[in-house]
Design a protein that fits this description.
four-stranded antiparallel sheet; alpha/beta; about 250 residues; globular; Rossmann fold; about 25% strand; 9 helices
C-alpha cells in the first residue's frame, strides 16, 4: 500500500473528561517518513492525544487520519498499518515473550512460519532470545520495554507510535532502541515519539511539536529551531514556560 505524503493528519482532535478539556481541538500534519517528536510538560495531553490517534480512546470531537484511514470511521483499517508502544506497555504477566509475539503475529494475519521467523529475528536484535521463555511478570522493566517494541514491529508497520520508550531503561538498552528506531526511520517508517529526555529526542527527530495545556504551542522542523544555535531545551522552555524561572528558590530549611 502506498502511503499519502501526509502519514498522520490530526483534525480538531478534542478530549473532554467531565468539565476538563484535556486536549483542545489540536491540528497536526505529520509527513510520511518523518521522525516526529511530540513533546510537552507533564499533564499537557501527550498520552491522551496518542491514545486517541491510535484508537485506544475515543475522541470527544475530531479525527485522526492514518495513512488515509480515519481512526473514527475506519478504525480497523487504520490500526492494521500502525504499531503502538503505549505508556503502560499492555503486556500479559503470565505469557512468555515468545507467546506474546506469536499471539500478535496471528492477530495481524501472519502465517505461523513468518511469525516465528520475525519473532526470532526481533528477539535476537533486541537481545532477548535467551529470555524468550520468561514471563512478562518476571522480566525487568527494560526487557518489558523491548518486548513491547518487538510486538509493535512484528507486522512491519508503516507508522510507529512510541509513548516514553526510553523512560526507566538502562543506557545499553537505550542504545539498542535508538539504533533500531534510527534504522527504521532511514528505511521510511513514520515514527511518532513522546519523551521527556530532550537530549535523545534532539539526536533522533526531524520535526517537533510541543503541546501545552492541551493546545499546540509549537510545530516546527527541528533544523529551524536549532538554526541559530538554540537547543531543543531552549525551544521547549520558551514554548512551555519555565516554572522555576531564574529566581533563587526560597526554601529556608534547605
Amino acid at each position: 500500500m502506498t502511503l499519502p505524503e501526509t502519514a498522520i493528519e490530526i483534525q480538531d482532535l478534542t478530549k473532554t473528561f467531565g468539565k476538563k478539556e484535556a486536549v483542545k481541538g489540536i491540528n497536526l500534519a505529520v509527513p510520511k517518513g518523518s521522525f516526529f517528536g511530540f513533546l510537552g510538560p507533564n499533564g499537557a495531553g501527550k498520552t491522551t492525544t496518542i491514545r486517541m490517534i491510535t484508537g485506544l480512546l475515543a475522541p470527544t470531537r475530531g479525527d485522526a487520519i492514518l495513512a488515509g484511514n480515519s481512526i473514527v470511521s475506519a478504525s480497523l483499517a487504520a490500526k492494521q498499518g500502525i504499531g503502538v508502544v503505549p505508556d503502560d506497555l499492555a503486556l500479559f504477566d503470565r505469557l512468555s515473550m515468545w507467546e506474546h509475539l506469536t499471539m500478535v503475529g496471528s492477530i495481524y494475519g501472519l502465517s505461523r512460519d513468518e511469525t516465528h521467523t520475525r519473532a526470532e529475528d526481533l528477539l535476537n536484535v533486541l537481545g532477548l532470545w535467551e529470555d524468550r521463555g520468561t514471563f512478562a511478570a518476571d522480566s525487568s522493566h527494560g526487557m518489558r520495554k523491548k518486548l513491547a517494541l518487538a510486538m509493535a514491529l512484528i507486522h512491519n508497520p508503516a507508522i510507529l507510535f512510541l509513548d516514553e520508550p526510553f523512560e526507566g531503561i538502562d543506557p545499553l538498552a537505550g542504545k539498542v532502541l535508538r539504533r533500531l528506531l534510527q534504522r527504521m526511520s532511514d528505511k521510511g517508517t513514520t515514527i511518532f515519539l513522546t519523551s521527556h529526555i530532550l537530549e535523545i529526542i534532539e539526536k533522533l527527530v526531524d520535526h517537533v511539536a510541543i503541546i501545552v495545556a492541551g493546545e499546540i504551542a509549537l510545530d516546527s522542523p527541528l533544523a529551524d529551531l536549532t538554526a541559530g544555535g538554540q537547543t531543543l531545551e531552549d525551544a521547549f522552555v520558551a514554548a512551555a514556560g519555565d516554572e522555576a524561572g531564574d529566581e533563587e528558590m526560597d526554601l529556608a530549611w534547605l
